[in-house]
Design goal:
Layout (H helix, E strand, L loop, with lengths): L1 E5 L5 H4 L15 E2 L11 E2 L14 E5 L7 E12 L4 E15 L1 H5 L3 E2 L23 E4 L3 E17 L2 E16 L11 E4 L6 E10 L13 H7 L2 E10 L3 E2 L2 E2 L18 E2 L4 E6 L2 E3 L4 E2 L21 E2 L3 E13 L5 E9 L13 E2 L22 E9 L1
Parallel strand pairs: 4-8, 15-23
Antiparallel strand pairs: 1-5, 2-3, 5-6, 6-9, 7-8, 9-10, 10-11, 10-12, 12-13, 13-21, 14-20, 16-19, 17-18, 21-22, 22-24
Length: 391
């Protein structure tokens, strides 16, 4: 299957054509002192619009390009399904999509700056502003793109011998770019995984009807005992996923590329692989592998960004299990009582968040000083009970 889908603009920031009109700010203050009498004109005074301080330089902000195209996404998939046994099927699918004419504001929360002192990324250059009579000149554009590719495998077992389950495995990659990281003008220099990209994701969800009660393998002869032992069902959801990507960058920002404060993620150079074989929350990556880039000082030489590439690092993987125990009790032909006991993250296993990604060359390189994880990415164990009456 395949399809082409069009989205809408997100609102005011995407459709307005600059909100800072007029371009010249003047002081003009009518001051009517008393009501007029008869046919006389109202007495008033007008202040000098060019007196006092110079008017502020105008700016274009929250603008949108002319003839902006609607963002769209093309989606396609190809799946093959086979019966493994009489009650178990396997589906293997290739699922992908590609986004075009996406708004930079929606992807990064930023609009493109045009009134940047240039040249940027050049050593010893005298920078000039393209539009010296204006302050900011920014515009939202439809130049952003996205690309998603995935292999998806599903194995499903219909209820047989009191057991059913569904399992999913997805291998995927989502690619995008960071529009401000290395070059303010060429916004597609730094291409890499999207910050929500997960390479591997596995989920299995079995349901087991316990073999007790009438019609089951173990059925007591007493009808009262049957009410207590029949209708029990246990289920669980077990999930695992690899970590999310992040970018190493320098702190504090020293504007190595002379991008006039627009670039707040100067990157370090790597002298070795900062990935640790046994990372811990106190030291998830090795700061000893990072150094400040040495930039050329010859006038006119091109400045070079650090080689710690965009979103090349991965945060901690995640594992969780939820468990449920359900009891169905038939009261009569019209009423059935359902009891549920559910535990989420039953092992209280923490999923760690993204580590601090800033490298400070002046700070200590000892464990616990840089590359630490201070926030979880999961909820603690939660247990709940419920009663439901079906009629």
């Amino acid at each position: 299957g395949a399809g082409l889908y069009f989205m809408t603009f997100s609102g005011d920031d995407d459709t307005e054509s600059c909100e800072s009109w007029p371009l010249i700010l003047t002081l003009k203050t009518p001051n009517e002192t008393v009501p007029p009498t008869g046919t006389a004109a109202p007495p008033q005074t007008i202040t000098n619009p060019f007196g006092g301080a110079a008017p502020a330089e105008p700016e274009y902000v929250n603008c949108s390009q002319d003839n902006r195209k609607l963002p769209s996404t093309g989606q396609w998939n190809l799946s093959v399904e086979r019966a493994l046994t009489s009650n178990t099927t396997m589906t293997v699918g290739y699922v992908a999509n590609a986004g075009r004419h996406l708004g930079n504001d929606g992807q990064f929360g930023l609009d493109l700056p045009y009134n940047i002192p240039v040249p940027i990324g050049v050593a010893g250059a005298t920078q000039t502003t393209p539009f010296p009579d204006f302050l900011q000149v920014n515009s939202y554009q439809d130049t952003a793109t996205s690309n998603y590719q995935s292999l998806q495998v599903t194995i499903s077992r219909r209820l047989s011998h009191n057991l059913s389950f569904t399992s999913f495995y997805t291998w995927s990659k989502v690619m995008t770019y960071d529009m401000y990281l290395s070059d303010l003008i060429d916004t597609k220099v730094d291409k890499g995984p999207w910050e929500d990209d997960v390479h591997d994701h596995f989920v299995i969800s079995p349901i087991w009807q316990l073999p007790f009660g009438r019609g089951q393998r173990f059925a007591p002869g007493n009808s009262v005992a049957n009410k207590f032992v029949e209708g029990w069902e246990a289920n669980t959801i077990i999930s695992f996923n690899t970590g999310f990507p992040f970018t190493l960058h320098l702190s504090p920002d020293v504007d190595l590329l002379h991008q006039n404060g627009y670039n707040n993620q100067d990157r370090p150079n790597l002298t070795c692989n900062p990935k640790l074989s046994n990372p811990t929350p106190f030291q998830y990556w090795n700061p000893a592998c990072l150094v400040v880039p040495t930039e050329p000082t010859t006038a006119g030489a091109a400045l070079v960004p650090g080689d710690a590439s965009y979103d090349a690092m991965r945060g901690p993987s995640g594992f969780s299990e939820d468990l449920g125990l359900i009891k169905h009790t038939a009261i009569n032909e019209r009423f059935m009582l359902e009891f549920r006991a559910e535990a989420f993250n039953i092992w209280n296993h923490p999923i760690l968040g993204i580590p601090a990604s800033t490298f400070n060359p002046a700070a200590s390189l000892s464990p616990g000083s840089q590359g630490t994880i201070t926030t979880p990415n999961s909820l603690p164990r939660t247990v709940q009970f419920a009663l439901k009456l079906h009629f």
